[in-house]
Amino acid sequence: MLTTRFTEALGIEHPIVQGGMMWVGRAELAAAVSEAGGLGIITALTQPTPADLVAEIERARKLTDKPIGVNLTILPSINPPPYDEYRRAIVDAGITIVETAGSSPEPHMEMFHEHGVKVIHKCTSVRHALKAEKVGVTAVSIDGFECAGHPGEDDIPGLVLIPAAADALTIPFIASGGFADGRGLAAALALGADGVNMGTRFMCTTESPIDRVVKERIVEASELDTNLIFRPLRNTARVAKNAVSDEVVSILAAGGQFPDVRELVAGARGRKVFERGDTEAGIWSVGLVQGLIRDIPNAGEVVHRTVDEAERILRSRLALFAEPEPVAAGA
């Protein structure tokens, strides 16, 4: 049993989280992770309305009675989703764990605290983690440069970011970006984290709702097969390397602006990748850790073997430093 401050704070068995992922964090996957003792997370904005989110939560509860979280990503937008309505739906559905990302969770904290909701805030720097701690989140999920999606603009990898966060924070935190197995979990714990968040690894499981062709692409790909788009716009995102993301990088490197790539990066095109299995239909998020993923197991197996491997590694390393047995006199 790898009991940590994070597992105790959230009431879960294993220090493993399946973070919220657009179009991926649905009931079957979240429930499978939670049922195995981790924390599965449903992505709120994958659901078209707050009512649909409530229905998705109910579907998950028919699959497990263990804790399930909901991700609410808050980003500036010309036509923003009705965040307050989604927040109300989360509370009314009885969810007690929320993962926030994007903008500061501060505007939402009063209501969440009022209803006993524990907040895990995702961030990409120690300074943002400290701000989240200050506004009262229960825990932080800190993303290193290796992660899929938005790694921030500091380019700090986990090997430095995790111990830096451990030195600065007093609340529990989990490490995200670059984790796929027990080696990563053991390393994160050794660096001071209280658990790990795995996204790409859980994308590539049988319960993940994306097309199997995409999962097979992840298995085949290496750690070299991603692109960093939007770098000149200081809104960096790590996505799969394909013809579309290559074109986006080329246009922006030549001085183009967002309107020049808007059609290429449209979310509707990315959704087609996951739903139709056409990996060249648009841009889609994946992490460097795809280079360590070599199979498509069920989500519960990922949880159990990650914990088992981490325990074996930690015990074997500790054994190297065990006190030697005293030599009997006359031996």
UniProtKB/TrEMBL annotation:
Question: Which parts form a coiled-coil structure per UniProt?
Answer: none
Task: Tell me the domain of life.
Answer: Bacteria
Taxonomic lineage is: Bacteria, Bacillati, Actinomycetota, Actinomycetes, Micrococcales
Species of origin reads Agromyces seonyuensis
Q: What is this protein called?
A: Nitronate monooxygenase
Does the keyword section mention Flavoprotein?
yes
Q: Which SUPFAM superfamilies match?
A: Inosine monophosphate dehydrogenase (IMPDH)
In terms of InterPro entries, this protein maps to: Aldolase_TIM, NMO
Recite the UniProt keywords alphabetically.
Flavoprotein, FMN, Monooxygenase, Oxidoreductase
GO MF annotation: an example: nitronate monooxygenase activity
